[in-house]
Amino acid sequence: EVQLVESGGGLVQPGGSLRLSCAASGFTFSSYWMNWVRQAPGKGLEWVANIKQDGSEIYYVDSVKGRFTISRDNAKNSLYLQMNSLRAEDTAVYYCARHYSSSRVSPFYYWGHGTLVTVSS
Amino acid sequence: EIVLTQSPGTLSLSPGERATLSCRASQSVSNTYLAWYQQKPGQAPRLLIYGASSRATGIPDRFSGSGSGTDFTLTISRLEPEDFAVYYCQQYDNSPPFGQGTKLEIK
What we know:
The complex is a heterodimer.
Chain A: E1 3-7, E2 10-12, E3 18-25, E4 34-39, E5 45-51, E6 58-60, E7 68-73, E8 78-83, E9 92-99, E10 108-111, E11 115-119
Parallel strand pairs in A: 2-11
Antiparallel strand pairs in A: 1-3, 3-8, 4-5, 4-9, 5-6, 7-8, 9-10, 9-11
Chain B: E1 4-7, E2 10-13, E3 19-25, E4 34-39, E5 46-50, E6 54-55, E7 63-68, E8 71-76, E9 86-91, E10 102-106
Parallel strand pairs in B: 2-10
Antiparallel strand pairs in B: 1-3, 3-8, 4-5, 4-9, 5-6, 7-8, 9-10
């Protein structure tokens, strides 16, 4: 059974940093592109970043470029999101999501339960 | 970058009725790389439709997708109580943005 379990969320002050983790199991992690998607309270879904199987290609939404870094450790079956210079507008539930197939051009089939990040003083 | 606009923002219907949700793209979506998701409160999204019209595994056949180019539709033929939720479209070519969502509520 495919499982994605996020952790690392919490309350952080504006300008602070946080590192999210996503532990994957039930599939060959190194064979799939992986994503972070967020959802602000009461708002819609926003794709944040994705990373290729070997980490050689990475993409970000414009609003987080230069502040967030996505990475992965295939030996540990884990995905990460390092978030720096956090702003109030980064407050959201952050989901880890796996593509349907090994291609980047495929929808998101598996999702974690999400971890809440709150940026507030 | 493609922008997806969903309409209506909120749709109020009764169980047993037919629901038609729209997703319009600011430019043509390559090869119908268009998906629909359902999200219930406190839950992660669930993939319903991909490739504009293919149902994901385990999705009931009352859900159907259609469209191409810039105009796409999700149809729920006969609403069941569990279908009342928020629905998002997504184009998953390149940077995969989502539409803003349509809330399907019980009338």
